[in-house]
Each structure stands twice: as structure tokens, then as C-alpha cells.
Design goal:
alpha+beta; seven-stranded antiparallel sheet; 32% strand
């Protein structure tokens, strides 16, 4: 299966009538493996900040999580595995695997829990597959 199929078929799937706004799979070096058409272009410093927070949890909390120029308040996640951000009625979930970042961005009516489920389920599957 191509990386684009993982984005199209798994990350952008319907859950209780809702969909992620945008999604992507990036290599840990910041290279884009696959993305939805409307996924924001991440700046190198944003990717560096995300990777640093996975390596040293809590580093993004004071400054916020930035994705494509949008600033999210960092909320609870799983140290070294998941970063979650919130901005108004929407947010972002980022799951780190051994080789990639799985990123899902959502807005109402999707709930944070639905976004977490979609992103983390694919991330866990990819970890199990050696990615």
C-alpha cells in the first residue's frame, strides 16, 4: 500500500460522520511521505520543535505547537509518543513512530477523541509493522 493510501483511506476516513480537516505522514527528517491536498506546509523550525518535544517532552508547552504557521496550545499527550494541540474548536494530534510522524488536524464537529483515535490507531499499526 502506498503512503498516500494510508492518508486517503485511513487518516481521512469517516468516523461517526466526521473527517479530519487535513492529514499527513512525514519522515522524521521532515520529508513529506504523503499528505492531503489542504495540509499546511510545515516550516523546518516547526518540524524541529516537534521532534525536540518528542525527545524532551514539555519543550513545546511554553511556546505552543506550531503547524503551518498556526499556533496550538499543547494539551496532554503521551511523553515521547503523542503530542496533542488545541486551538479554538479544533486541534492537532501527532503520533511518532520509529520512522515517521503521523499528523491529523481537525475542526468541529470532530472531537479531539475522534482525531486521537484515527491518528494513534494508524501510528500504532505502523509501529507494529516496523515503521
Amino acid at each position: 500500500m502506498s503512503w498516500q493510501a494510508y492518508v486517503d483511506d485511513h487518516l481521512l476516513c469517516e468516523i461517526e460522520g466526521n473527517h479530519l480537516t487535513s492529514a499527513a505522514i512525514l519522515g522524521l527528517d521532515g520529508s513529506v511521505w504523503a499528505q492531503s491536498p489542504n495540509f499546511p506546509q510545515l516550516k523546518p523550525e516547526e518540524i524541529t520543535g516537534i521532534i525536540n518535544d518528542f525527545n524532551e517532552p514539555g519543550t513545546l508547552a511554553p511556546t505552543g505547537l506550531h503547524c503551518g504557521g498556526t499556533k496550538y496550545m499543547v494539551i496532554q499527550g503521551e511523553a515521547g509518543a503523542v503530542i496533542r494541540g488545541k486551538k479554538g474548536p479544533g486541534g492537532v494530534t501527532i503520533k511518532k513512530t520509529g520512522m515517521a510522524l503521523i499528523i491529523g488536524i481537525y475542526d468541529e464537529p470532530m472531537t479531539p477523541g475522534q482525531c486521537n483515535l484515527i491518528v494513534e490507531r494508524l501510528g500504532d499499526y505502523l509501529v507494529d509493522q516496523g515503521f
